[in-house]
Amino acid sequence: MGRSGEMVSRATDRLLIVVSVLEGRCFPKRPQHMLIVEAKFDGERLATDPVEHTDQPEFATELAWELDRKALHQHRLQRSPIKLQCFALDPATSAKENIGYVVLDLRSVQEKRQAPKWYPLLSNKYSKFKSEIQVGVVLETDLKAPVDGFKVREAPLRETKASALPSEIDPISILPVLNEEEGYHQIGPAQYCRDYFVLSVTVVFATHLEQLVPSTMKLPEGRPEFFFYYSLLGNDVANEPFF
User: Fold this and answer.
1) Any residues with CB less than 8 A from the CB of 90 and at least 6 apart, and which?
2) What pTM did the predictor assign?
3) Domain residue spans in the chain?
């Protein structure tokens, strides 16, 4: 009985954060474009399928992330947001145009399904329209792996066998080279590059940022935007602006 109880406990410890992107309203009609909503949480990004860019777009999509209760508690302490970004897509060129975004507070998400809410798009590019998207979010017990989702947990260490370098190549002399066309850094001669790695930098939250601004500095009027910035291998990287 003890083991059986432990198995049930472990099974119910797995949760799904399910975000239902249902529909939109007060959008302009753009027949040559499509609409996409991308949801980002804990560094992982999911997206709806493109839908017609009408005044009332129908998304009708559920996006899910898997995590355990310990991770959920940690994310709530850190006030980790779920950010929904709306894009207008030009199918002819595949260009994406940032329309606006919505931020969901994970601390208010419950295991009991609530009625979906209408959220206005922040930084709405369609300034003459009060565009909104209807979103529902709930915590569900994960009895099986989600079809369209990510596991929010530490990735296990993987065993890789490094490709042997010829003796005439000094490892210390190898420098990363940015492949702009493919969008990655190549470290070492191409014929010896066998593995792909992803470095993820997550800025969780910050406090007392106003103390970084000298009293003599005059901030721009209105709602000035701020962003975090760092340099990686000689390349500048910045996150999305916030207020």
Assistant:
1) 32, 33, 96, 97
2) 0.54
3) 11-151, 172-243
Q: Are 53 and 24 in contact (CB under 8 A)?
A: no
Contacts of range 203-207, beta carbons closer than 8 Å, 24 or more positions apart: 203/228, 203/239, 204/78, 204/80, 205/78, 205/79
**Cβ burial 46-84 (10 Å sphere, 16+ → b, else e):** bbbebbebeeebebebbbbbbbbeebbeebeeeebbbbb
Distance CA 121, CA 86 (A): 8
Domain 11-151 has CATH 3.30.2320.80: no
Give per-residue pLDDT as tens, 139-148.
888 665 444 4
pLDDT tens-digit profile of 68-97?
888 888 888 888 889 999 999 998 888 899
Q: Which two tokens stand for residue 116?
A: 């979906």
